[in-house]
């Protein structure tokens, strides 16, 4: 609280776009990962080749968290896409059960889907369209995916440690090229 001209001014609490109230803002650190033909420049992530094998990725990997409820929010816009089946947002499990837990990928034509299971999450993620993604991971309970503010998927979330990633990542059945710009990245916890 600040006093300005004799009046008490209270800054509004930061609120998340989805998931109700009570969120506390986070600022996790990240590392940029670039492998194969993956290129990251600021918040632009590209796969510059059409290779359908090998480790092709350009991503940000955020700090690991254990327990609690954690929300990610970010906007992506695909600026060019010659390939298909590229993961854009991931929730990964960390040690001791490390590996991909949730991967949101895009097919040419704009279908967003969950890589594990193949469920359609949304459509309309076409070149030039800005899309908001929120994931809420209540560790040990549920993992929820929202697209443009609408709940699209709820699955069980096992106990353990997790971290968030976003960028461009070739799935096992995918290939580039693709370029996606990410913006307005925010994190919260409860």
TrEMBL record:
It comes from the Bacteria. This is Polysaccharide lyase family 7 protein. It comes from Amycolatopsis samaneae.
């Amino acid at each position: 609280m600040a006093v300005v001209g004799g009046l008490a001014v209270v800054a509004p609490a930061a609120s998340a776009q989805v998931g109700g109230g009570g969120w506390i803002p986070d600022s996790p650190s990240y590392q940029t990962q670039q492998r194969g033909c993956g290129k990251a420049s600021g918040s632009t992530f590209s796969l510059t080749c059409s290779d359908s094998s090998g480790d092709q990725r350009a991503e940000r990997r955020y700090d690991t968290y254990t327990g609690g409820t954690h929300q990610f929010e970010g906007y992506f816009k695909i600026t060019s896409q010659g390939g298909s089946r590229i993961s854009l947002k991931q929730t990964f499990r960390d040690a001791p059960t490390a590996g991909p837990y949730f991967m949101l990928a895009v097919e040419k034509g704009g279908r967003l889907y969950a890589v594990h299971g193949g469920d359609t999450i949304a459509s309309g993620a076409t070149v030039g369209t800005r899309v908001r993604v929120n994931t809420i991971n209540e560790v040990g309970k549920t993992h929820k995916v929202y697209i443009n503010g609408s709940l699209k998927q709820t699955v069980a979330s096992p106990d353990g440690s997790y971290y968030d990633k976003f960028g461009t990542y070739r799935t096992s059945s995918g290939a580039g090229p693709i370029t996606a710009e990410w913006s307005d990245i925010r994190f919260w916890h409860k």
